[in-house]
Design a protein that fits this description.
Length: 62
């Protein structure tokens, strides 16, 4: 693999599902109709990708 390009760093709104499906490494505390506190919460995938970058792709384990 020459590189890995994530779809999106933060939650991406699905055009037909709103915030029902979450993409990205960082969860935003909100839903379709309530902005809540808009806190950014790092998902497990964030820490996995951080480890992959630090290891220069040598460690792809969970």
């Amino acid at each position: 693999m020459l590189g890995y390009c994530p779809w999106s760093t933060i939650d991406l709104i699905s055009t037909h599902e709103g915030f029902e499906k979450r993409y990205g490494f960082i969860y935003i505390n909100r839903d379709n109709f309530d902005l809540k506190d808009m806190a950014r919460i790092r998902k497990k995938s964030f820490f996995w990708y951080k480890k992959v970058i630090a290891a220069n792709g040598a460690d792809l384990s969970n």
